[in-house]
């Protein structure tokens, strides 16, 4: 009997405990964030855009001998080095911004309160989608760092004296990462569109609020 009494007491204590989100809920808005708009989605577009520009311009630099006559015909004073310069500085910027992208993503994911009872177009629930998106983001950060280091060695050491500053394997890897970024971005879009993660209107509707009264 004493064992049962202690067990019931522990269960009652467990039920009365609040989650970490409940403890700070007074400082969070309807989107479950301490600020008006989520930061992570905006930084994601910087990561994707800068990386895409880097690979695109390096491809243009690699194909420069085929483009030279067209560029001259159009009177565009573009050199092969200028294409590769754009490729280098953009992947460097993409690498730097991706640290902030992943950091804000993890922070905002910890504060996420997804709408329950919903499945994504892939048939996944909120938690599996969040885990896949979080782990995928960390892996992509690692891949972008590796690509940036690889690009740096090619620029300053391995292919320093060559006209084509990047190898074909580097470009192929970049294209594959762009495909992965597209798939990974779809998971992030589903967190917002399907589960209402940090979407003020969705969160208010899920709570039964009247948007005409709550929102300006």
In brief, what are we looking at here?
This protein is mainly α. 71% of the residues lie in helices and 0% in strands.
Task: Describe what this molecule looks like in 3D.
With 216 residues, the chain is mainly α. The chain has one domain. The protein has nine helices and no strands. The protein has helices at 2-16, 20-23, 40-62, 64-73, 80-110, 126-158, 168-193, 200-206, 211-214. α3 (40-62) runs antiparallel to α5 (80-110) and α6 (126-158) runs antiparallel to α7. The longest helix is centred in the middle third of the chain and has 33 residues, at 126-158. It is elongated and about 65 Å long.
Key attributes of the depicted protein:
mainly alpha; 0% strand; disordered N terminus; 216 residues; elongated; 9 helices
The end-to-end distance, rounded to whole angstroms, is 58 Å
Give the mean pLDDT: 82
Strand content: under 5%
Number of domains: 1
Number of helices: 9
pLDDT under 50 segments (min length 5)? 1-17
Task: Return the string of H and E elements.
Answer: HHHHHHHHH
Number of strands: 0
- Radius of gyration using CA atoms only: 24 Å
Task: Describe the sheet with the most strands.
Answer: none
- Gross morphology: elongated
Structural class: mainly alpha
Estimated helix fraction: over 70%
């Amino acid at each position: 009997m004493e064992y049962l009494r202690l067990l019931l007491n522990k269960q009652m204590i467990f039920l009365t405990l609040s989650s970490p989100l409940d403890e700070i809920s007074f400082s969070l808005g309807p989107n479950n964030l301490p600020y008006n708009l989520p930061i992570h989605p905006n930084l994601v577009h910087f990561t994707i855009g800068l990386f895409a520009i880097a690979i695109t311009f390096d491809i243009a630099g690699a194909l420069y001998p085929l483009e030279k006559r067209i560029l001259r015909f159009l009177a565009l004073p573009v050199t092969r080095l200028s294409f590769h310069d754009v490729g280098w500085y953009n992947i460097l910027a993409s690498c730097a911004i991706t640290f902030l992208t992943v950091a804000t993503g993890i922070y905002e994911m910890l504060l996420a309160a997804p709408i329950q009872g919903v499945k994504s177009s892939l048939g996944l629930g909120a938690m599996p989608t969040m885990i896949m998106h979080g782990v995928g983001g960390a892996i992509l950060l690692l891949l972008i760092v590796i690509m940036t280091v690889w690009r740096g060695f090619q620029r300053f050491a391995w292919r320093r004296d060559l006209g084509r500053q990047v190898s074909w394997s580097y470009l192929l890897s970049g294209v594959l990462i762009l495909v992965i970024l597209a798939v990974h971005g779809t998971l992030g879009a589903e967190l917002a569109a399907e589960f209402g993660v940090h979407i003020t209107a969705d969160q208010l509707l899920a709570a039964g609020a009247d948007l005409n009264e709550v929102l300006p």
